[in-house]
Each structure stands twice: as C-alpha cells, then as structure tokens.
Amino acid sequence: MDYLKQKLIDVALPKAEIVRNLVKKNGDKVIQEITMSQVLTGMKGVVGLLTCTSKLDPEEGIRFRGYSIPELKEKLPCLHEGGEPLPEGVFYLMLTGELPNDEDVKYISNQWAQRAQGIPSHVYDVIEALPKDAHPMIQFNTAILAMSTESQFRKAYLVGMDKKDYWDPTYEGVMDLISRLPIIAAYIYRRVFHNGNHIAPDPSLDWAGNLAHMMGHNTEEVKRLMRLYMLIHSDHEGGNVSAHATHLVGSALSNPYYSFSAGMNGLAGPLHGMANQDVMHWLNKMKREIGSEDPTEEQIKAYAEETLKKGRVIPGYGHAVLRKTDPRFTVQLEFANKYIPDAPYIKLVNKIYNVVPNVLLATGKVKNPWPNVDAISGSLLTSYGITEFPIYTVLFGVSRALGVLTQLVWDRLYGLPIERPKSQNLQYFIDKASE
Ligand code: CMX
What we know:
By secondary structure, this protein is an all-alpha fold. It folds into 2 domains: 288 residues, Citrate Synthase, domain 1 (Orthogonal Bundle); 109 residues, CATH 1.10.230.10. Helix content is 60%, strand content 2%. The chain has a 3-stranded antiparallel beta sheet. Helix 4 runs parallel beside helix 19, helix 7 packs antiparallel against helix 9 and helix 10 crosses helix 11. 46% of the residues are buried. Carboxymethyldethia coenzyme *A (CMX) binds next to loops.
C-alpha cells in the first residue's frame, strides 16, 4: 500500500470506530429541533451531514481542517518563495487532516502527473461529438461520465468486495479523476476558444500550473493565479449543492465519476458556480447600457436597483450561510491589489463593492448583502487574459473536485449508509401549522 493510503487508513480507522459507536450508543439523542421555515426554505442550518474536510462559519468564512485561508497561505508548501500555496497541499490536508510537508506535496503532484496519462480515447470522441457551442459545463460533465468506464470501484464491487474496503477503489478513482480534470478542462477550452489547437500536458509542472500551461496561458503570473484559484474554490463544507449532490449520489455506491458528475450538474446552476460567469455578463451589460467603460458609483447603484426591480438577482452577492464578506473574495481582492491594482475590471469590482451591499440591504429581505467568491474571480481571470467567461465554471469545477471527492473517500471510510431523508406532502405541513 502506498504511504498516503497507509496514512489515510491509520487516521481514519479510529474515527470510523467513533462514528459507529456514536450511532450505536447515542443514536437516540436529539441534537437539534427544526422549524417549518427551515424545511420549506432549503434546509438552511439543518444539521444533516457529517463532513470534516472544511467548516463554514457565517461570520468568519471557510476553514479547511481548522485552517483559515490566510493561515493556509502561511502554512502550505509553495513552489516559489512568496508564491501561492500548491492546491496539492490543501488536498493532502483535507484528506489526512494534517499539514503536508514539501515531500508530501511533491508525492501528490507526481501521482497526479502519472495518473493523468490514462484518459481513454473515447472520452475525446464523446467531447468531439458535441457541438462546439455546447456550454463548456455540458462538455465537462459529459467527459466526466465518459471517463467512468475506467472506474475501479464498479469492477471491484462486481468481483465482490468487503464493505470496509469500499474506500480503497474509491480513493483510486478519485486520484485518477482529479489528475485528469485539468487535461479535460484545457481540452474543452482549446476546442471551443482556440480552434482545437491543443497543448500537451507537461508532467514536470504542478497540477494547477499545468492547467494554465495547457490552456495556453503559460506565464508565471497566470500559474500563480491558477494556484490561488484552485486552492480557494476547493471546498465549502458538505451542504453546498455541489458537495451535497456528490455525497448524495455517492451514498448509493455510485462510482466517483457518477458522484462527481452529479455535483458538477449542481455547480452549473446560476445560484451556485455558474454565478462566476453571470457576474461578467452582468457587469459587461451594465457597461454597455450605461455606455461607459468606467461607470460612476451612482450609475452602478441605479443599474443594480434596476436589476432588482426586474426580479433578477445580482450575481456574486449574497450567500446561503455567510453573513460577512466571503474571505475567498477578500483574498482575491488582495491578490489583485498587489499585482494588478490598475486593472479596469478590478477598479470596477471595487466600485460595485462600495455600492451593491447597500442596494441589497435596502430590500429588507436579503440576509447577506456581501460579495461571495464569484464577485471577483471572473474579473481576475479576465484581467490575466482568460477572457472566455463560459470556461469559468469549469475551472471552479476542477478545483471543487479536491474537496467533494475527498469527502466521498471519507464517506466510505466512515461507512456512511445510503441517504434517504423523509419527505411529506403539503397537507402534513398545513396540519403541523395548526397543531
Ligand atoms: N440579488 C438579489 N436578490 C437576492 C440576492 C442577490 N444577490 N441574494 C439573495 N436575494 C434574495 C433571494 O432571492 C430571496 O428573495 P425571495 O425572498 O424573493 O425569494 C431573498 O433575498 C432572501 O434570500 P437569502 O436567504 O438572503 O438567500 P438564499 O440563501 O435564499 O440564497 C444565494 C443564497 C447565494 C442563492 C443568493 O444570495 C443569490 O441568488 N445570489 C446571487 C447568485 C450568486 O452569487 N450565487 C453564488 C453563491 C456562491 C457559490 O455557490 O458559488
């Protein structure tokens, strides 16, 4: 067994035992009461999942295994002095619960570089069978499903496998899938936006650096941005749509490809990951309608109010859990202010930040008027030359694989059963209201 798997099993076995004992000895303990409104408005705040890779505090934002984003920037290995941490490091941290050293990160980088070579040719045939103008998320998801022919989990399951070993082929599939996603994403990007002029992977590069390279943005600046981007989008607890969908489908023992594909279908919704490109549509439309590349704050305010009046959302703002500015927004703004303070899109992001929270607050109903991760990510990518908005959600998805697939491995280490919440008809809730 390779050392990472051995480490994982050493860490996980005692924890799986704790989970089993909690169910056995404390199974009847009531841990929470839920309200009618929680059930009918998206189960916000209802504790219904066990997830240890990261935790989201409404005021503070995300912590990965206890570490905030600024702490990760200090503690995770970087390729260069003063650079951004390698996403390989946050994957190791989420998987094992421990901070990696340089060797650990190198091990994962090498593993992914080797495993990336195994994409079967039919995956490219399937992508090529789709129209070029099919949204990149359609192409991405189709490719993920097409790759599931490689799933070790299904093969091992058919041969006959002890339940306690489910995590092992799941881990193998997860490592393969993560290693291959940058190649698939870059392939789709070059197919759609660069005349199918593809660029071969460079196995000597790190995972995120290689993605920038294969996309044709082969500068140190873009690689640095890509490392940050891949780090901060990787996980956001277990209840967000992409994580929960991956977990839910995985709970039926669907293989990692099916499970991740479910998560990616959720990420493609405009209230989740697709918001990163909708932000760009929104602000470009605003510039066009105002007739200025540099609208004033008054003009932005009027445009935002108009958006609300038409019954639309302002993308990049608000959150189902957060009640403060998203630290993933803040870290990107700091990055932009450090490296490209004069970029027009970053100036616009700052102006919107000055105006939109008050516009949302004035509605009296928006629970969180502050920017989320998507309010700036597209403006950053655009400022660095990745101007093709439809690819943005795919990039989000490549990063999100790190978290949700680690969660899937842990689901199987914990031996979690199939998920099956109870649903009720409308009469049930009417009756409850009059009790
Ligand atoms: N613009 C306009 N209205 C908004 C809003 C926004 N940015 N954010 C919330 N609202 C509205 C809701 O639509 C809801 O309206 P109704 O009562 O008329 O249905 C009301 O305010 C209350 O909503 P909430 O409890 O504050 O927010 P939710 O938990 O229901 O929704 C979210 C959260 C993210 C879907 C919502 O804030 C939104 O639509 N934001 C814009 C889309 C976006 O940026 N999504 C990306 C989130 C991060 C990510 O997953 O990538």
